[in-house]
Design a protein that fits this description.
The structure is a homodimer. By secondary structure, chain A is of the alpha/beta class. Chain A is built from ten helices and five strands; from the N terminus they run βαβαβαβαβαααααα. The longest helix of chain A has 33 residues. The N terminus of chain A is likely disordered.
Chain lengths: 217, 217
DNA sequence: CTGCCTATTGTCCTTTGGTGCAGTACGGAG
DNA sequence: CTCCGTACTGCACCAAAGGACAATAGGCAG
């Protein structure tokens, strides 16, 4: 039986890391030095492929990403990262960027889009925002995962009953819909309430919303 | 008593209008001609102030907005419009725009940020997206307003009971919290369920979510 | 003053929901 | 084959919700 202790923060202490992805070696070392001086942990990568190859997704942080790179471009990395389950906020950096690219990047969820030469007064606030966003999204994802785990602990039949309960149907109605006795529905209902750790239909509805269960069904 | 017929589409037939705001008269006429040819209704304005002065908010459509204008800039208009209750999607147009401006505009919710010279193949898709977004948001707002109206029909006491019901509390508990008899709570509860036109706590929760009632309380 | 709304409470009765206890049936894992 | 989880069901009991009918009291508009 899954005796899941609720809301255990996933390794909270892991300090955020700035992932610098840029094909220009001198820029990488310069920015790494700058960020180190600012008190950040830094990892540098010469290409998007390198980054994707070694990134595990469990490290909080953000990405400082050059738009123009041989091979996978910054935008490519962005969409690849977005497809993953643990996307990091991205701060783009470009030497000769154009507006359409910046628009596309922002629309795809970039935290910022900065131009070289990079000034500390611009970079550091952007990083702060990106890290804050990452922390917030990470927390949301953790919560969501925890809830989804509860929903996955339900048996198919319980899930079925759940959808009817969420529609506000009476046990009697659910019973006739599912061609079962009212007693059976009560049993499933009690089980699912226990598994989802809620006491009332009101709580149940909230949980279903948070976990995105209502929308998917 | 408010015998509100639910979901009456607000003057659905009103065709969307493109509001062109640009200080360059020749550009205004050129773009107006282009849009007319595309089958759109167009209104032009020489300044952000002009637009804000005559815009009523009940017309669906979108704004084609120049960034650089004397007086209020495009970004100023954007934030003014966003503060209103019926914001229109904005497609920015700029002659000599810079990336920071485009980033700011996109972050503030602009639908797109285009550069002159304007190509039809770029402009028209942007307008289509903006109009689609407007239609969608307008529908959401209408639904939201309709629901909010229901909530405003509640008496203060009923609202108070509602918040407790949404927490999943029993009538008995609510009664003791509000220092009233259980019978009184039942009365308020029945009243508010009727006013909100819901049959079950499940529906009630959904409605409260949609109307943003749960979050504000 | 009168009528209407809001808030309050009561009693009585019915319908639902929730739970304890108990039992049947089926299919997969060991 | 046995154990276990899942699904299903019955009976009984109690708690909670909700409707019917009725009544008191204060505030406010006409």
């Amino acid at each position: 039986m899954s005796n899941c202790l609720s809301s255990q923060a996933t390794v909270t202490a892991a300090s955020p890391t700035i992932f610098v992805v840029d094909d220009d070696a001198s820029f990488r070392t310069a920015i790494a030095r700058l960020l180190h001086a600012g008190g950040y942990a830094v990892q540098t990568f010469a290409s998007a492929t390198d980054f994707l190859g070694s990134f595990r997704g469990d490290t909080p942080g953000c990405v400082l990403l050059d738009v123009h790179m041989p091979g996978l471009t910054g935008l490519d990395l962005q969409s690849a990262l977005a497809r993953g389950e643990n996307p990091l906020p991205i701060v783009f950096i470009t030497g000769q960027g154009d507006i359409p690219t910046s628009v596309q990047a922002m629309r795809a969820g970039a935290e910022d889009f900065l131009t070289k030469p990079l000034r500390k007064a611009v970079l550091f606030p952007a990083i702060t925002r990106a890290l804050a966003r990452d922390a917030q999204e990470r927390q949301q994802r953790a919560r969501r995962r925890e809830l989804r785990a509860r929903f996955e602990a339900l048996t198919p039949r319980e899930r079925e009953v759940l959808t009817h309960v969420l529609r506000g149907q009476l046990n009697k109605q659910i019973a006739s819909d599912l061609a079962a006795s009212e007693r059976t529905i009560k049993a499933h209902r009690a089980n699912l309430m226990a598994k989802l750790q809620v006491q009332s239909v009101a709580e149940l509805g909230q949980l279903a919303h948070e976990a995105g269960f209502a929308s998917q069904q």
